[in-house]
Amino acid sequence: MNLWINAWVFAVYVKIQLPLAIVSTAAMGIAAAIFAAIKSVNEMEGFTGFVVQTAITGIETVVGAFGKAFSEVVLGAAQLVFGLGFDPMALFMIGFLVVSSLGAIQILLAWFVYFIAGIHSLSGEAVGAKWAAFLLAVVGICIPILNLFPLILLWTAVVWVKPK
User: For position 8, what pLDDT does the model report?
Assistant: First the structure.
């Protein structure tokens, strides 16, 4: 049973989840760098800081007058700094949501297969270890860096060792 579950979990992980998680994590890093650059410009001091702050205030006034949102400013910064023509935060969110959804579906399907097969995946012997591995898998798909790892395989390994 575990061989079958691990086969399709690992296949989906390698072909879909891992590439999307890598792209999503990279987009998160790019977005963080852009926001840090915008913040560092806002914190400049002295005459240069005064000039930059005045320029930013003017840009915000012009941007506000034309009705553009802050995301347009971020998009412009992404284009200027990284040569990107899109908002990296949107790419991060799309990848993160797809990876999290696939992970949740995999966990639910694995639990359902264990349930139908009569295997006690969340009860019976070593219930603490089973729940700890299950919760680690669930939390792991919800944290951007941890979703790079197929933590569901830890849960299936614990269930394989103590199926009853």
Answer: 85
Q: Supply 22's token pair.
A: 């890598």
Which one-letter amino acid corresponds to residue 42?
Answer: N
Mean pLDDT (the chain) is: 77
Long-range contacts, 6-9 (Cβ 8 Å, 24+): 6/153, 6/156, 9/106, 9/110, 9/150, 9/152, 9/153, 9/156
By the 8 A CB rule, do 107 and 152 touch?
yes
138, 52 contact by CB (below 8 A): no
> 70 near 31, Cβ under 8 Å?
no
Is the pLDDT score of 135 beyond 90?
yes
pLDDT at 162 over 60: yes
**Structure-block tokens of residue 97:** 């949501």
